[in-house]
Protein: Zn(2)-C6 fungal-type domain-containing protein
Amino acid sequence: MVGVADEAKPQCYRCIKAGFECLGYQRATQWRHTSLAPVTASRLHVPEFVDIVQPVPVSFVPPPELSLDAFERDMCTAHMFGNFVWRSYGTLWLNHACEGKLGNLSLDAVTALSQLSFGLNNRVQELQLKGAAQYGRCLRILAEELRRDKATAYDNRRLVVPILVLMMVSAIQTDRTGAVFHLNAIEKVLMLCGPRAFQQQPLRNAFEAARATLLIASLFSRRRIFLEDPCWQDIPYALDPYAKPQQSRLLDVLVAIPGLLEENARIDGMSYCPEDESPVPSLAPDKRLLCRENLCESIIVLLEKVFRWRWHWQRDYGQYVSAEEYKRQLNTPPATDFESIDTPKELRRLRFDRSVHANDIMLYNSALMWLMTLLWKLKPLQTRSIIQGCARHAATSSALSPQSPALSHISFDPLSQPGSAFSIRDPALEICRVFDWQCRHHDQCGALDDQACLYLFPLGMARSVLDAEPHYQKWIDDMLDLSPITAGYGRHGGSIVGFSSYITGCALYPDV
Structure:
């Protein structure tokens, strides 16, 4: 019909001519790559085709301009500082060592630590071998330096830094022989140099790290340490007494505890003769009783000093601690046993303004547990009254300070007031409450040049105290497992520096 479009299916002329059914637009377009014509088998053996037919090997090695070898040191160093325990332990001095500001030996020691740590954690055998070889070279250089004349001992005060770093290397290698060598080296350098050699930063922070390290070793061996001498507590800060951190003041108390343990062991051995192991009164009973009284007096002096520190800390930093009520989500299982504890006080999660304040409270409670445990062991009947008396004297002396406000104006909430606890479980639980905040703020460690020489030590003591309570043990494990750096700490049994051997039933449950 004229003027009406042809609605028939379009057909191509080729299909009409060949007699095929034309599919028109319904047929899908097929694309074929035909740039290479098929080659006959007889022509494949011609020399000009041999190179075309043979496969070409593919190399995945990046070109030299894209190699990461130039960034190896930076990557290893960044990985090392990712360990917040090391970062807080080595505040200032570890940074200076990485920059080569403390001598070549310190720089080489840091290189060994960073390479070995990165290689072990990422299973890079080449870096492990490099780190181990560098560690061996540093040991040889250190041995030569330690054999030098005593006249140059003061100039060798910087040796403390590489020794501390090499001790960290021996720790990740579980090299006990090397660790003992490094401990002896630290002690030798400190005694040769004297306390005046560490009055300037960053060596002053290195001294604090060395002091904490020797303290742990002395608690293990239960032997008196030379660092309890007052000159080692005051002279390093003589140029700037106000720069002394709260951690250092608590270490002044803790370094005296190995001497107490040594004296306690001496008193316990007074009634026995080592030749025939038979009970023989080698000393008169009144002499033994007098030694025990003197030991208790020393503990009381330290306990009152710790309580005074706590009052001063609350006056200066108490406003930086608060608590928040934990609100459990409905239909959500608790993440840790902490969320299922029924005690209202323990359900209040702590909050700190800075990580250093949390470290202070944990270290305070660890010192408190040592002193309370020894008192309960020596004088179980008088310990409660002794604690009350020390707390009362500490509060009175703190109130007499011209800078102190009235006692009624100082609130210790949400923490415990000095003298309010008679069981060592209370300071142990306070350590766990503090670490509950700490484990969620590991990134703040080492910030603002805040040093924490004993980061996990208080929690290890708390674990020993709460060893018989599985729900608290699980709470501690859950907090530690939040970070691969702290995961598994103290989980395989044993006691931190043998602390559990001093714990008695009265110390745990004084009201029973």
